[in-house]
Design a protein that fits this description.
Layout (H helix, E strand, L loop, with lengths): L14 H18 L1 H19 L4 H32 L5 H37 L1
Helix pairs in contact: 2-3, 3-4
Bound molecules: adenosine-5'-triphosphate (ATP).
Adenosine-5'-triphosphate binds next to helix 3 and helix 4.
Length: 131
């Protein structure tokens, strides 16, 4: 059915098929996108640290939201890059540059937000443990 490319171009005809194609998209992100792997690994690291430091439920919500935003921004960045490449190929195009740079800027904003959230939550706990 899905997961191996059968050159399907028609609509998915079952929930299972839709789900398998979504899973295939996720695996493609992990396999092909170095930055996506980096953000996924960083998020897992932050989640492990959050467990170890026993942060509050509200802090968990913030940490998970910040991680989710970075991963979603990276996903949208990959979508933009792929569509731009599909459209312009190897040719230089000013609008292609704008689209790709803006998409990358979105990832940067989300990553900075995650760093600020991480510092607000982890720094006081770490400083308290050091004292
Ligand atoms: N067709 C193009 N026309 C103009 N500029 C381009 C084009 N393709 C890429 N660029 C420029 O090269 C940069 C890198 O593009 P590329 O598609 O390699 O992204 P990437 O290295 O995969 O980015 P990221 O690190 O965000 O995943 C873009 O941000 C853009 O400035």
């Amino acid at each position: 059915m899905a997961l191996k490319d059968n050159h399907q171009v028609c609509k998915n005809n079952s929930f299972n098929q839709s789900f398998l194609h979504a899973l295939q998209g996720l695996l493609t992100l992990i396999k092909d996108e170095r930055n996506f792997r980096f953000h996924l690994f960083s998020s897992l690291l932050v989640i492990i640290v959050s467990f170890l430091l026993r942060i509050s439920i509200y802090d968990w919500l913030l940490i998970l939201t910040a991680s989710f935003l970075v991963i979603m921004a990276e996903t949208i960045n990959t979508i933009v890059e792929t569509i731009v490449d599909l459209y312009v190929g190897d040719k230089y195009n000013k609008l292609a540059k704008k689209a790709k740079d803006v998409a990358a800027g979105g990832v940067l904003i989300a990553a900075l937000f995650a760093v600020v959230v991480g510092m607000i939550i982890f720094l006081p706990i770490i400083l308290q443990k050091l004292n």
